Sequence to fold (221 residues):
Amino acid sequence: MRDLEHITTTRDVYNRTADEYAAAIGTTISAGIEAPIDRAALAAFVETVSLNPGTIADIGCGPGRVAAYLAGFGLEAVGTDLSESMLGQARRAHPHIQFEIGALDALPYATASLRGAVCWYSIIHTPPAELTIAFTELFRVLQPGGDALLAFQAGDGHAVTKPNAYGSGSALTNYRHNVRDVVEHLVNANFEVTTTIVREVIHDHESTPQAFLFARSSGSD
Ligand SMILES: C[S@@+](CC[C@H](N)C(=O)[O-])C[C@H]1O[C@@H](n2cnc3c(N)ncnc32)[C@H](O)[C@@H]1O
Fold:
């Protein structure tokens, strides 16, 4: 894991606010947080990977909501996150699932070991210029033809810094990634983007459209 400012700050803030995050967002995918189309995206991903099952990683898992969702469909789900405190939440809520420390640019998985991966609002603290590095690491751990689903707040790539993130007293920067730029970073990392969904704001806790990208790793690098 690289010792970059955005990584250490993100880890520190989530380490100090994991309890508040889990209390506010919960430990499962829910209608209060995810809109019907968001849950439909997850359901479509489950159907896609179920044709040829294998291990699916919830990357930037937080309290393990997506891993638990996947496991609920009988899939072999695992999870990884930067934050030990978030991993603690995930392990307590979902003791049957394996969660381990890792980062988008240093995943704790062997090369070509995963059937699929979901990055559900976990690339939102990664600066746009770092995305190709993260997606190259994602490509490494996926089997050829492996499937990925990414969710994030969409915008023009600008940074939004919250001075008191999750009540931590510390500033945390979120990037409103530009969808076309994210697609380009995925293509740079040998992915083909098969589906793009952008929906408008539905919930009170949202301030931007939400994007969902389905990508498939190419057969070889
Ligand atoms: C907004 S939360 C989303 C958590 C979870 N996916 C969910 O939907 O509840 C962002 C999570 O991504 C993790 N994260 C952020 N940047 C990361 C990185 N570079 N590598 C691994 N995890 C990261 C954070 O620690 C945090 O748990």
